[in-house]
């Protein structure tokens, strides 16, 4: 017999919205990170009032609710760690209402981020946050995890472009935060608190996004260096020269090799480090900035400089950058993807530490990422079925986290804390920091039904990549 | 599938989700990590099929259908012939009046009602097996007839050969060819798919041609993947690769030959419903549109979301009728919104589905294969 709360859900939402078959539940038991947790029911919602209905029932019966977009999360946000309900928003019809004169857009949570990019471009506008998964991920998931992307360097991340939200509280009340104006100091800034809260405070059912005019032109530059140190120098010299590129991406030698083996893309194969830079703005300004950047690169003895002349040639370079993730996944079956972030000046030092960790634990560790803002993606390629190797990987990951914190950086630049990084939270923000966050969580969600098991570690919880 | 492989769910539990999959492979086109879903899907179907306990009579029917019926062009031809008798004799009208057709459990009847008029058995038999180019020979090709195309859409095959020869290709229609095996592979009947592939590979080896040309998106998609059926490094794998090299869709060949001139203006607005297997497996999207744009008087109005599957998906519309109709209804809404008089497709399954969809939604639109449209514009050698 089914639980009473499942019965209530079916009565309130209709049978078609509530799935309890084994195959359906298993399909929602994982995300882009680690671990499998079986929910008891999957509920597909398409309106704020439905979300409210679900939350009221869940709160009444004390059933955990884990919101989920497309499940591309790299930190375990949509994993139903304590079972209960997975609240699937991916079937929520996409809706993008652009108010061009106000430079804002109202969007539904199930809308794909890339659809927002496309739609606002038709108005000559831009929604800058550009996570690499934008063509699969929903804006709801981006908001919950405060996603970043290459353009974070110049334009910031998701939270910098949200001025208002509609949220359903853990008790099932529908409320609005913020508004439709850039300036707004009315009361506490609940909007910013919700964005990046990883679904532990409530469910986002609509968002008002801030837009900016789309830059008139862009120019890509690809530069290769003989060592990581010089590449690091090139980044800091550029950023202190009065030029702020929109993107500064970095790929290490191992990633270049992987991409070229996977799908030859014309990356400089002998380089120890490759930087891919994008300038944006007015055409005349870009031309001047391009010459200045090229001068810096030449002075630092770049081994190869490519300036694509057509949009197609530039697109090929960016495609090669996008190929890094799938390409390295062919090295070994399991990919542990981190996003430790350090102050820009510390990038060369962090790279050195990563190289030491690679040697010490004898692991396949490759690095790429958003070098311009210090957000690196150390990726460990391993095999989950190899218990001994996974133990070494666990230790290496712990050391990567500690290295980032020691250098004045952070555990997570854009993926979120979720399940994997929660045991390390206290190392970065201290006991009082964790306590403050927990107090906020408790007052928002007294019954602890909103995405329990995330951000805060259970007593004694450790990083576990191996199954014993 | 991973969960089933790990034993966390049973193969039986995997069956329904796998059967509900259209196999349109759109997920492969957008996949950020290049997951080889086509191989996974066929592997899963194979595992499910092997594991299945079926009632005896079902096994017997399927055996007959897959081992003898579909691969045998003779049998398929007689379906074509029977269809012709059925239509000409007035039995069709009679059956439609009685409503017999709509009562068949597999919903075959719905689709029978939109079948085109069949050529007579005599017309079939009189087809020339070798047809020289009607201008300077630029290419020698073998024409792959396809089971459904050759039985149900025989005329389109005739038109295909005519277009090819006009455009400068000499065409042979090898007797030794057999079914491409797509339906077998999709049904998890791996061994039969392999046997059919072998026969076609052998057929081509005996011919002195540059290409093997087909006009069915689904057949082409199966044939360009023949190498996946054999173990890498094996002799058959090598032979399959040589075959794959020569497989080409007719739209690509016609675009490449660039040897046609169209003399009759067709004052239509048309919209294109691309076959999923053309777009996502063969990755051919440019050439069909290029050909449409060459037609005088025709204006192409693309529908919203053209790459969304029409729901035909092999025999999906017959075995998963209800699901298929949900998909079709959305597609017909998009097609109607273009105000096109003609819906153009490049695969027999899609063509039937679009014909049926137009009747079902009473849009008054006409569905044609791109080849029919090209033929209608009175092509001459350029």
Automatic annotation (TrEMBL), chain A:
Swiss-Prot/TrEMBL keywords: FAD, Flavoprotein, Oxidoreductase
Residue ranges annotated for the FAD-binding PCMH-type domain, each copy included: 35-214
Pfam families: FAD-oxidase_C (PF02913), FAD_binding_4 (PF01565)
GO terms for MF: FAD binding; oxidoreductase activity
UniProt keyword Flavoprotein, yes or no: yes
Cofactor(s) the record lists: FAD
Extent of the signal sequence: none
SUPFAM superfamilies cross-referenced by the UniProt entry: FAD-binding/transporter-associated domain-like, FAD-linked oxidases, C-terminal domain
UniProt record similarity statement: Belongs to the FAD-binding oxidoreductase/transferase type 4 family.
Cited PANTHER family: GLYCOLATE OXIDASE SUBUNIT GLCD (PTHR42934:SF2)
Protein name: Glycolate oxidase
Organism whose genome encodes this protein: Marinococcus luteus
Origin organism lineage: Bacteria, Bacillati, Bacillota, Bacilli, Bacillales
């Amino acid at each position: 017999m089914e639980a009473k709360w499942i019965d209530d859900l079916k009565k309130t939402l209709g049978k078609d919205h509530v799935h309890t078959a084994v195959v359906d539940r298993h399909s929602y038991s994982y995300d882009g990170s680690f671990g499998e947790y079986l929910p008891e029911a999957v509920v597909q919602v398409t309106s704020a009032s439905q979300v409210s209905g679900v939350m009221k029932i869940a709160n009444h019966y004390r059933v955990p609710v884990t919101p989920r977009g497309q499940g591309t999360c790299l930190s375990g946000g949509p994993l139903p760690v304590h079972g209960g309900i997975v609240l699937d928003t991916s079937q929520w019809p996409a809706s993008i209402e652009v108010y061009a004169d106000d430079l804002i857009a109202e969007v539904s949570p199930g809308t794909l981020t890339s659809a927002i990019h496309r739609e606002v471009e038709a108005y000559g506008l831009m929604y800058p946050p550009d996570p690499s998964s934008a063509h699969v991920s929903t804006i709801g998931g981006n908001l919950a995890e405060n996603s970043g992307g290459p353009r974070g360097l110049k334009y910031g991340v998701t939270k910098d472009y949200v001025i208002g939200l509609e949220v359903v509280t853990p008790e099932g009340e529908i409320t609005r935060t913020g508004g439709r104006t850039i300036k707004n100091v009315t009361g506490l800034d609940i909007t910013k608190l919700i964005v990046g809260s990883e679904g532990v405070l409530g469910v986002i059912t609509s968002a008002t996004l801030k837009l900016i005019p789309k830059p008139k032109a862009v120019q890509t530059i690809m530069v290769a260096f003989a060592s990581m140190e010089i590449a690091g120098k090139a980044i800091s010299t550029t950023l202190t020269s009065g030029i702020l590129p929109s993107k500064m991406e970095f790929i290490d030698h191992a990633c270049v090799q992987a991409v070229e083996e996977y799908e030859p893309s014309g990356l400089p194969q002998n380089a120890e480090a490759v930087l891919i830079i994008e300038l944006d703005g007015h055409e005349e300004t870009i031309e001047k900035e391009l010459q200045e950047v090229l001068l810096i690169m030449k002075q630092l003895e770049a081994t190869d400089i490519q300036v694509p002349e057509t949009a197609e040639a530039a697109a090929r370079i960016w495609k090669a950058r996008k190929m890094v993730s799938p390409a390295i996944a062919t090295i070994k079956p399991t990919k542990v993807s981190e996003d430790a972030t350090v102050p820009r000046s510390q990038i060369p030092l962090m790279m050195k530490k990563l190289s030491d960790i690679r040697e010490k634990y004898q692991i396949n560790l490759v690095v790429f990422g958003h070098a311009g803002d210090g957000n690196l993606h150390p990726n460990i390629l391993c095999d989950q079925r190899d218990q001994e190797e996974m133990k070494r990987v666990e230790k290496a990951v712990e050391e990567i986290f500690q290295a980032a914190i020691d250098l004045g950086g952070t555990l997570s630049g854009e993926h979120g804390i979720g399940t994997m990084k929660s045991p390390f939270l206290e190392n970065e923000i201290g006991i009082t920091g964790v306590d403050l966050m927990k107090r906020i969580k408790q007052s928002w969600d007294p019954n602890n039904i909103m995405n329990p098991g995330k951000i805060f570690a259970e007593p004694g919880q450790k990083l576990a990549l191996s199954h014993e | 599938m991973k969960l089933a492989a790990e034993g966390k769910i049973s193969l039986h539990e995997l069956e329904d989700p796998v059967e509900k999959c259209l196999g349109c492979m759109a997920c492969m086109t957008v996949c950020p990590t290049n997951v080889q879903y086509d191989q996974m899907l066929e592997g899963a179907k194979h595992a499910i099929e092997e594991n299945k306990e079926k009632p005896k009579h079902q096994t017997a029917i399927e055996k007959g259908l897959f081992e003898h019926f579909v691969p045998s062009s003779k049998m398929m031809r007689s379906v074509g012939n029977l269809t012709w008798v059925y239509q000409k004799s007035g039995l069709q009208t009679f059956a439609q009046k009685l409503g017999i057709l709509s009562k068949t459990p597999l919903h075959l009847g719905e689709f029978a009602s939109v079948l085109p008029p069949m050529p007579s058995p005599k017309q079939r038999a009189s087809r020339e097996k070798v047809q020289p180019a009607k201008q300077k020979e630029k290419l020698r090709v073998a024409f792959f007839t396809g089971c459904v195309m050759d039985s149900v859409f025989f005329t389109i095959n005739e038109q295909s050969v005519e277009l090819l020869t006009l455009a400068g290709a000499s065409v042979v229609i090898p007797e030794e060819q057999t079914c491409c095996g797509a339906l077998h592979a999709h049904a998890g009947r791996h061994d039969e798919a392999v046997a059919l592939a072998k026969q076609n590979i052998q057929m081509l080896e005996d011919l002195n041609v540059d290409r093997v040309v087909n006009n069915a998106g689904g057949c082409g998609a199966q044939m360009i993947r023949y190498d996946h059926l054999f173990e890498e490094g094996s002799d058959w794998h090598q032979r399959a690769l040589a075959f794959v090299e020569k497989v080409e869709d007719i739209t690509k060949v016609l675009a490449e030959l660039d040897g046609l001139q169209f003399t009759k203006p067709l004052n239509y607005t048309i919209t294109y419903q691309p076959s999923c297997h053309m777009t996502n497996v063969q990755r051919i999207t440019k050439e069909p549109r290029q050909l449409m744009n060459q037609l005088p008087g025709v204006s192409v109005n693309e529908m919203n979301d053209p790459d969304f599957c029409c729901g035909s998906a092999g025999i999906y519309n017959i075995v998963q009728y209800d699901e298929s109709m949900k998909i079709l209804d959305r597609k017909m809404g998009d097609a109607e919104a273009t105000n096109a008089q003609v819906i153009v497709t490049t695969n027999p399954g899609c063509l039937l589905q679009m014909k049926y969809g137009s009747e079902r939604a009473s849009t008054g639109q006409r569905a044609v294969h791109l080849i029919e449209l090209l033929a209608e514009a009175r092509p001459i050698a350029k």
